[in-house]
Amino acid sequence: MKQAEQTGDFLISGTAADGCLRIIGAETTAAVNHAQSIHHAAPTAAAALGRVLTGAILMAKELKNDADRLTLQVKGRGPIGGITAVSRIFTRNGAAGNLDGIFVKGYAENPYADLPLRASDGKLDVGGLVGKGFLSVILDLGLKEPYTGSVPLQSGEIAEDLSYYYAVSKQVPAAVSLGVLIDRDLSIRKAGGFLLQLLPGAPDKLITELEARISNMPSVTTLLNAGASMENILEDIAAGYAPELSSKIPCAYSCDCSRTRMEQALCSIGKEELRTILEEDHGAEICCHFCGMKYEFSEKELESLL
Known about the structure:
This protein is an alpha+beta fold.
């Protein structure tokens, strides 16, 4: 397990329009910065990974208990390959209703992938880096089988793809905004996003007005960089619909890997493959994709797993 001291990141949520609109926002600058430093990600790859991490944090509101997990996967055919983020929650007593924190971890198959800025607008070409493919969500709530939903990528820019996932797979109209602003020194200057979900009974006027407001507003990271708080952003979007926001919930990048989990991974490859490793390498080293922690297993330890 490997993590760093991170401060400032948080999630805030609430409702508006007499409960017909769910609003969730998160500032994720420290978590995305930490992910970039772990994976040594190139600017465009860092933006892509940061958007997926932020999306997984926003979606963590669907989790109820400490053992629950939400996995957000983007599998495109572009240079970055697949991107995976996993979010989990920390509660005061392991039960719903006492959410104290949200943790996220993630990785990209090729974090060194990069592309020139888009000629059309001078922005990072996340869609080009991701390419065509699929977005999948795996929600493990401790039931017999986890819920899995998958949709074709619409743009590879992540936010639009998540909105499409909610509309098609969850049949919930939603608007998603995700952003990562890269500084001149290639560090993460700002990262964050918001998720709006229209619940049953939402009037058509609300849908039309929200679409217009969001399409005319600057990007979420532009607003954050200009000094706006996430509360300001959410209140402005839902202005006129009596938004009610909860208290802030801290968020952080944190990997929960362990030696026991790595042993389970070794066992999962099968005894024949394990014997081959034992005979040829006389030991094994496993590196965690999420945090880079290395676990070494001696010849005797491998023998004990057979």
